[in-house]
Amino acid sequence: MDNFKYLMIVDWAKDYIRRENLGANDRFLTEKQLCEIHGVSRQTVRQALLRLESEGMLVRMRGSGTFVAGRNGRQNETRTAPVKGCIGVISTYFSDYIFPHIVTGIESVLAENGCTMQLAITHDQVSEEALALEKMLSNDVLGLIIEPSKSALPNPNTELYARLRRENIPYVFFNARYPWSDAPCVSMDDEAAGRIVTDHLFDNGHTRIAALFAGDDIQGHLRYSGYMKSSLAHDVTNAEKNVFWFATSERSDMFRYAKDRLLELFSGATGVVSYNDKLALRVLRLCSENGIRVHEQLSVVSIDDSRYASVCEVPLTSARHPHRQLGEAAAELLLKIVRDRDCQPEDRLFTPELMIRRSVCPPVLQSV
Question: Are 63 and 135 found together in one domain?
């Protein structure tokens, strides 16, 4: 019933925007007002606002409120003359998963503003990140949009970042930021993602929940934090004992060298939180190969809501990553800095939306 309620609010909001003739940047109703109008919970209203934001109807600005979006789902800004020049984009990966959507979002905004784009891929290796930074510096880019490599580990490229500062070349991080940097970052709220998927398992009656997280990137740490906060909020104090940490470079091999450990972990659980959808597919395969039925015996939740989540054998419940929107926001933030070096850029944090599919059922229905 709640799903129908929030969809009704979505339709009502679209009609309200048309009826009231609201334009780009006009302030929209508050969560409290919507709760009072529709007689629903704040959670239902937030779900509706998330959908409206994902459809490009609204933009929510932390500390400011909710506004009607402009063309392409972004707030209209007073544009100065097009920025002529090249922007460097450094991404860990590109060929698949959510990365093409992020880069497409970046490229679309840069093209709208008269910029060209130079793309470099690091394969999540700090040595390749160093080469990419050196190449961008030699090509006189106006600015950089960077996804860090192994963001939770000490990084040997700090001198290259210091050189960017000395040469007054602005840069923006996306997806994550190095702990030592104060550069602005555009990302999904990874802690919130870890929490909402874990909450969903608890809401379905699970109390024995295992989890798999990447130990060498900040996203893995934040998603772990969300998992732990959800567990503690549900009075599960030993959740950290049910976590398997892995290095991203070993995520394929670990299903071979750590197979017994993973099966042991799953045997003591009724639910599993996966670091992302790619890893969740390997979890599904491991379960299938060893006679564990998902969702009948083991419920699985994941993060990113990539194309894999809806087409795999057991469609995954997953927290949606804003990919293209995130790329657009990163490009807009960098161009803002390029145009006005005295501006005070703020981080942009996207709230994830939970996409519910068939990979979860209550443990009372599972044949444990």
Answer: no
Looking at the structure, do residues 99 and 176 belong to the same domain, yes or no?
Answer: yes
Whether residue 38 is preceded by a cis peptide bond, meaning omega within 30 degrees of 0, is no
Digit-coded pLDDT (tens) for 31-66:
888 888 888 888 788 888 888 888 888 887 655 578
CA dist 228 and 251 (Å) reads 22
Map residue 8 onto helix, strand or coil.
Answer: helix
Strands 58-61 and 65-68: antiparallel
Q: 69 and 99 in one domain?
A: no
Same domain, 252 and 316: yes
Whole-prediction pTM:
0.78
How far is residue 329 from each of residues 26, 116, 348, measured CA to CA in Å?
Answer: 19, 17, 8
Distance CA 263, CA 284 (A): 12
The whole domain housing 12 covers 2-73
Report how far apart, in Å, the C-alpha atoms of 45 and of each of 42, 198, 349 are. Answer: 5, 21, 19
Domains contained in the chain, number = 3
